[in-house]
């Protein structure tokens, strides 16, 4: 789901009208105060196929959060989409990592799922890259190092492949550091040899094995790391001129052209990531292998992880923060959302029995 700011399509007031579900007893839904009432919605900051992300303000203190709202009927049409929705919530709930967006709370009403996350005031990396055209190598290396640590955490701790790494899913916090977001396409794996067959992802970032419809594993994320680094340095992905057939042919042939301004180390790293054979990609034997590449010679990984150094990305963040562009708007009543007759309220609730997550009061870090 994209996090780009739009002033249009403010969510309708029926979000707050659904009854909050806290538990189920004797097959009857118990209705309590809706946690949504604690927040004021300000604007839509992202739109996707199954819902949207809203900027919200907590009424008692004015703190800002991002809230992902997913319509149950949209996701209940497909078992894999249900699985992906639950996995995204699981990843966010379990994640304790500096480069993964934080989740504070989740709850559900009779027809919708809500996830409250930290708000990232500078939006997504794609928007910043569009304005900057391209990043200098020092900035690109810094961003890329933080992304590498985030992907390493997903693979080694969460045992999940990302499958949707792209600048639109990399958010920027107040300090200029980045965080990975939107895990709707993530997939768990039990063993590193586990394979997937689903044809999904963003076309310009698809690995050859997906384009050729071969079974694939977590090494697809190494390919997209190579695409990302190229884009950070060049302003655009290495493949993508022409239509979709041309794009897929370019990916399968795998002959990216490197501009003269790419350093030797940058070009070599990208080439080692953009290997057509998945287990030949740098990092396929472990991320320490990738982190030892000469491109990262000046990187102290412990300092990167603990954010002890100022992000060079800040020099590109002169644009106004999103909330400064938002004028609070009155919320107009819209027709109440209706449930499909094929799903009763109890059925929709039963599909997501353990979705609610509330570890206590939302505590914001300085």
Automatic annotation (TrEMBL):
Gene3D superfamilies: Phosphorylase Kinase, domain 1, Transferase(Phosphotransferase) domain 1
Keyword Ribonucleoprotein attached: no
EC numbers for this chain: 2.7.11.13
Enzyme class: transferase
Alphabetical list of Pfam families matching this protein: Pkinase (PF00069)
Tagged with keyword tRNA processing: no
Ranges of residues in domain Protein kinase: 39-296
Record's keyword terms, sorted: ATP-binding, Kinase, Nucleotide-binding, Serine/threonine-protein kinase, Transferase
PROSITE patterns: PROTEIN_KINASE_ATP, PROTEIN_KINASE_DOM
Binding positions for ATP per the UniProt entry: 72
InterPro entries: Kinase-like_dom_sf, Prot_kinase_dom, Protein_kinase_ATP_BS, STKc_AGC
Record-level Gene Ontology MF annotations: ATP binding; diacylglycerol-dependent serine/threonine kinase activity
Protein name: Protein kinase domain protein
Organism in which the protein naturally occurs: Ichthyophthirius multifiliis
